[in-house]
Amino acid sequence: MNLIDRRALLLGAAAAFGGRGTPALAKTEASPVGSAHDGLNAQARARGLFYGSAIDQNMLANDPAYMDHVARECGMLVSEYSMKWGTLRPTPTTFDFSAGDKLLAFARKHGIPMRGHTLAWHMDNPPWLVSDLKPGNAEKILTKHAQTVVKHFKNRLVHWDVVNEVLWSKDGKPGGMRDSLWYRALGDRYIDIAFHTCAEADPTALRCINDYGLDYALPDDERKRHDMLNLLAALLKRGVPVQALGVQGHITAGNVPFDPRVMEQFINDVTSMGLKVLLTEVDVRDNDLPADLAPRDAGVAAAGAAYLDAVLKNPHVIGVLTWGLSDRRSWLNDELPRADHLPQRALPLDTELQRKPLWSAMAASFQKAPQRT
Ligand code: XIL
Q1: Quick one: pLDDT at residue 33?
Q2: Whose CA is nearest to atom 4 of ligand 1?
Q3: Cα-atom radius of gyration of the chain, to the nearest Å?
Q4: 164 Cα nearest atom in ligand 1
Q5: Residue 198's pLDDT is what?
Q6: What is the Å distance from ligand 1's center to 262 Cα?
Q7: How far is the CA of 177 from the centre of ligand 1 (A)?
Q8: Residue 51 alpha carbon to ligand 1 centre in Å
Q9: Which residues of the chain, if any, have pLDDT below 70?
Q10: Do 174 and 187 form a contact (C-beta atoms < 8 A)?
Q11: CATH no. of 3-368
Q12: What is the C-alpha to C-alpha distance for residues 268 and 260, in angstroms, rounded to an integer?
């Protein structure tokens, strides 16, 4: 039995890796709002999948009701930003794990596996990194960061998003690579460095490459799917230890051409390389929908159902996370607000922490998904 299978058994988070194993560890504390046995993760686990959500330290510190629902609904957690450079690295010589450790303590208190996000990204970097990173020092800086961070969380995180959003064809670089600070310093070799360092620092964490814009029958998405398949093949060919593709799944309800056959084919192309797939940041933007709640919630649920139905058909898809659990907190309201500035209704629970049609649609998608062995 390899390290990953043993860790999954130990953590009782078999679904975390899409492998066999013991049922998940009983959650150490049922949430006051109801049993974890009726949450979205319970629906997912019944088919050998997991469901989870991004959480953040502000919610943890200030909204116990939200976190009670997280404990009820989730079987996987990821930090929205406390494990990114911007939080972890106040200076070139210091690391601040305090926020990440608090979130991880919550996860372990409730017996919920947690995934790491992310070791190299073009955003949310501290000013000193942006100004100091050079071709001559970048490998040392990235290796030190990845080594220190992955070892700090060793045996306590089940996945890592090792690199995030590395493709952006509009930058005109070979292979559609994003012209990020990492690319400018190291070329695409930064991906190799990050993955090898992560594998050495914690061999048991599932190593993922994570990206968005892979979803629609649109020229940009088609180009990114093409570039991602080529990148994954090239990484595997040169021995980079990538194990899974994280498809962020920031989708849109309304005027977008979603073709399930295109998505199914892409997921099949990825898993045919021997890689697992997971949906890592699902939310359903409702910018194109009317203000009235009923049609908005119905449109969001329909888009979520069509997307999950298509993706979950492939038995090598191991789970789904949403980028937040409740409309009470969504990055979409900061970054992609509606024209009428109404809060988006992009997530499974509403602002009052009540289950919405999207919750039911996701539960139904889990129930119809092929059983994972
Ligand atoms: C976002 C967070 O939600 C925001 O709070 C933060 O200000 C910026 O980053 N894709 C990703 C996530 O991989 O890390 C991003 O999270 C959303 C897009």
Answers
A1: 74
A2: 331
A3: 19
A4: 13
A5: 98
A6: 26
A7: 20
A8: 19
A9: 1-32, 36
A10: no
A11: 3.20.20.80
A12: 12
pLDDT, position 31: 62
Residue 124 alpha carbon, nearest atom of ligand 1: 8
Residue owning the nearest CA to atom 7 of ligand 1: 331
Residue 32 confidence (pLDDT)? 67
The one-letter code for the residue type at 156 is R
The b/e string for 4-16 (b: 16+ C-beta within 10 A; e otherwise) is: beebbbebbbbbb
What confidence tens digit (pLDDT) does each residue in 94-111 have?
999 999 999 999 999 999
- Structure-block tokens of residue 262: 């295109």
Per-residue pLDDT tens over the stretch 199-212: 999 999 999 999 99
Mutate to test the pocket of ligand 1, among 115, 123, 214 (most ligand atoms within 8 A of CB): 123
Dist. CA 11 → ligand 1 center (Å): 27
The minimum-distance atom of ligand 1 relative to the CA of 117 is 14
- What does the alpha-carbon distance between residue 38 and residue 334 come to, in Å, rounded to a whole number? 31
d(CA 108, CA 45): 18
- Cα 197 to the chain's mean position, in Å? 20
- For 35-66, give one letter per residue: b (16+ CB within 10 A) or e: ebeebbbbbbbebbbbbbbbbbbebbeebeeb
The pair of structure tokens assigned to 73 is: 């609904």
What is the biggest distance separating any 2 CA atoms in the chain, rounded to whole angstroms? 56
The sign of the dihedral angle between the CA atoms of 282, 283, 289, 292 is positive
Evaluate whether 9 touches 23 at the Cβ level (below 8 Å).
no
Residues lining ligand 1, CB < 6 A?
80-81, 124, 164, 248, 281, 331
Of the candidates 251, 254, 257, the one whose C-alpha atom is nearest the C-alpha of residue 323 is 251
In the chain the beta strands, taken as DSSP E runs, fall at 50-55, 77-79, 114-117, 159-164, 206-211, 244-247, 250-252, 276-285, 317-322
Cβ neighbours of residue 2 under 8 Å, at least 6 residues apart?
A: none
Q: What is the pLDDT of residue 17?
A: 64
For residue 323, the ligand 1 atom closest to its alpha carbon is 3
